[in-house]
Amino acid sequence: MIILGIESATTQVGVAVGGHEGVLASAHSSRARRHAETLAPQIDFVRRQARIELAEISVVAVDLGPGLYTGLRVGIASAMAMAYGLGVPMIGVSSLDLLAFPVRFSSKLIVAAIDARRGELFTAFYRQVPGGVQRMTDYQVHKPDDLASELIATGDDILLVGDGAHRYSDVFDEVNKVEIVHKGLSYPGAESLVELAHARALREEFVKPSELRPLYLRKPDAEVNWVTRSDD
Question: Mean per-residue pLDDT for 152-170?
């Protein structure tokens, strides 16, 4: 089973290929909203590095969000086109789950926080379980100060991961018992996407491309601006 993973929910674009042998090849880049220009060459590069043909791909996995609206749409549309073209099923994974997975060995309460712009964060809380992490909350939208208050209220030791944690580090540095994970793990990774998708593929948790639904959590900026202008 060969899985192609496509991740573009944030400013970073990532592609990985793998299966039961683990991740065979991956690539990530961050070029300021050039997701559409970057994604296709990256898919071809990773495929060639892994020495596989497109016809060998049996599952397409994609980051469902939440994240930046334009990047998310580009990634999901590209993944759906690949799945339709190859005639293979899909697996969707949340960007917040992808952030929490690399730090799954921590016994602390893991909080994933993606910079949502507009002074907000996309967040979810996780706990370590055998083999990975378990999500403890819904996917949510928080103001940084509100999230800081919620972290204090837990009374737990906190491991805070994501670009949102670094964007508002001045807020979270004031909270006792909060450790911010280094910037190298600030973005959802395509490698984690392939690993999590492989586990779901073994359980046959597939969806058809037509059934795939992005996780936006809120309206896109353009729609909000239009509504605001209409109200003026």
Answer: 97
**C-alpha radius of gyration, the chain, whole number:** 18
Distances (CA, A) of 69 to 26, 66, 135, 141, 169: 23, 8, 23, 14, 24
Contact 154, 110 (CB under 8 A): no
Beta strand pairing status for 59-65 and 2-7?
parallel
Q: Helix or strand or coil: residue 132? A: strand
Task: Check the CA dihedral 164-167-168-173 and report its sign.
Answer: positive
Distance between CA atoms of residues 217 and 20, nearest Å: 33
Q: What is the DSSP letter of 51?
A: T
Q: Which domains does the chain have, with CATH numbers?
A: 2-94+188-231 (3.30.420.40), 96-185 (3.30.420.40)
Distances (CA, A) of 78 to 6, 8, 118, 222: 8, 10, 27, 22
Query: pLDDT digit string (tens) for 81-120?
Result: 999 999 999 999 999 999 999 999 999 999 999 999 999 9
